[in-house]
What does this fold into?
Amino acid sequence: MALNLHHLRIFARVAERGGFSRAAVSLHLSQPAVSKSVRELERELQTTLIDRSAGAFRLTDAGNALFTRARELFAVERAAEEEQRRLRGLEGGVLRIGASTTVATYLLPQYLARFRDAHSDVRLRLFTANTRAVTRALVERRVEIALVEGPVDDARLQVVPWRKDALVVIAPPSHPLATKRRVTSADLASAPFIVRERGSGTRRVAEEALAPLGVSLRVVLRLSSTEEIKQAVAAGLGLAIVSRSAIGDQVALGRIAVLAVPGLSFPRDFSELRFAGHALSPAAAAFRALLTAPPRASR
It folds into this structure.
């Protein structure tokens, strides 16, 4: 029995997005059309893929197994598309780049501009998410270049250091800790913190650095981007730990202050993830060459 790939693709999007409504929006289809497609796939396979009896969305064992195979299948499809793009060289096609949030917002734009100037016929597509999601996108061949800010543990990938970075603790200038010469670990343990979501490289590095000091952050707010966090800190909602690369504008405006915490260090690398032995398209190879070139002076 041959699977209906159209139904399978819709089911995979439902499983990926965790619900019919979100999948429908991403596919530009109506929710009834998405639900009908999944029901037809279930009839075709004579099994139940999604448990509709519970209040929360949940895949059955059969659904989980099929979703795993669907991701593998569509990864092969994307690999075939990559091969065709390589044949087109630098005179067309699409280069898909994945970058974690801090990299995408504060470091990547200058490289995108340089690439566009040199290769205007290649269309650029940027996928921005946390480190975990960007890693998954590379493994599933949804992106060809992947730049992340957090640790990655995946035997299939090489983690190649790209740029040095450091995290800093920030506070609103009016916060009592902003005027202290030496902020202690006890001060941090008792302060309210604004953090990124689970899967964020920034959050993981910060928590690993604080753990030896016995500091567990008192989280009062979770936000999905560094920009949101900076604005929340400036508004007095709490402290945060962010990339030094991301705060120059707000520090210059006097809207946030960097705390002095002796003995606490947050060095880290921004890294490029690579498949060992994986051949890049000419566009991806050209972009990688830009990443290792000296930064261009501001215009």
The first strand starts at residue 50 and ends at 51. The first helix runs from residue 5 to 17.
